[in-house]
Amino acid sequence: MKTETIPTLPSVGESETVVKIRNLNKSFGERAVLKDLSIDLRQGENLVVIGKSGAGKSVLIKCLVRLIEPDSGEINVLGFDVPRLDVKQLRELRLQVGFSFQGSALYDSMTVRENLEFPLRRNLGITNQEELNQAVEESLADVGLSHTIEQYPTELSGGMKKRIGIARTLILKPKIMLYDEPTAGLDPITSGEINDLIVKFRDKYNTSSIIITHDISSARATGDRIVALLEGTIKMEGTFDEMKLTKDPELAQFFNY
User: Fold this and answer.
1) What's the confidence (pLDDT) of residue 44?
2) What is the pLDDT of residue 102?
3) Could you report the per-residue pLDDT of 215-229, keeping only the tens digit for each?
4) Are residues 75 and 7 in the same domain?
């Protein structure tokens, strides 16, 4: 498959590379999902990956932290040679990479406060209640949900759960954020709020993010650069406005909405 490459923004191109993937391959049985895929993520960049369902978008970001083991290829994240990490090193990497799953992944038996305290206690060993309170309150303020602190997830709307899930991920102050379909199942207004948060956190914490989505409105709102993943490899990349000008019929269908 021929790759159509479009020049990216100069200011982004001059940034440090924090994720480098080269010749990545992953198959499930006879089905090749990722085929010799190569991609970079730069410091402070929001990189959006679009593609049809089953194109391998979620597999890609799961390979970055070895939630899925790649078959072959080079994956370097924040200087870590990911395929060769031992258990201790992999844990260290995962503390620096936040993963926002498609579902909110909250514990229904815990209050919002307890959900946000959990990664601080488990991953950082923080037990001082004043320190925990400060971190939880700051994270909830970031997503505009301070008033939910003593509520349970079952009392929250889908959009609120999504925002709390993002807050729980960001409470560890990761250097990289991975968002898997952040606006899936949400109404347009709530989707817009999530998109605004993604951009806000990039600006506030200088995080680098990979955003997996089939929501072209989300891609336009959040992406500094967009790549189109088709048939297991990247067919085209560029800014939203550049991508929209494509004459490729497979890609044009994403932007004709």
Assistant:
1) 94
2) 76
3) 889 999 999 999 999
4) yes
Phi and psi for 163 in degrees, rounded to 5?
-70, -40
Pull the structure tokens for residue 123. Answer: 């991953």
Q: Are residues 179 and 166 in the same domain?
A: no
| b/e burial code for range 163-201 (CB count within 10 A of at least 16 → b) | bbbbbbbbbbebbbbbbbbbbbebeeebbebbbebbeeb
Backbone φ and ψ for 144, nearest 5 degrees, come out as 70, 30
Domains: count for the chain: 2
| Distance separating alpha carbons of residues 3 and 236, to the nearest angstrom | 6
Same-domain check for residues 64 and 111:
no
Which of these three, 150, 173, 196, is where a domain ends?
A: 173
Lookup result for tokens 């790549």: 227
In the DSSP assignment, the letter for residue 107 is -
pTM: 0.87
Query: 7-16, 21-30, 35-44, 188-197: which range is least confident on average?
Result: 7-16
The label of the residue with tokens 């200087």 reads 79
- List the domain range (segments joined by +) for residue 132: 98-173
Strand partners, 32: 27
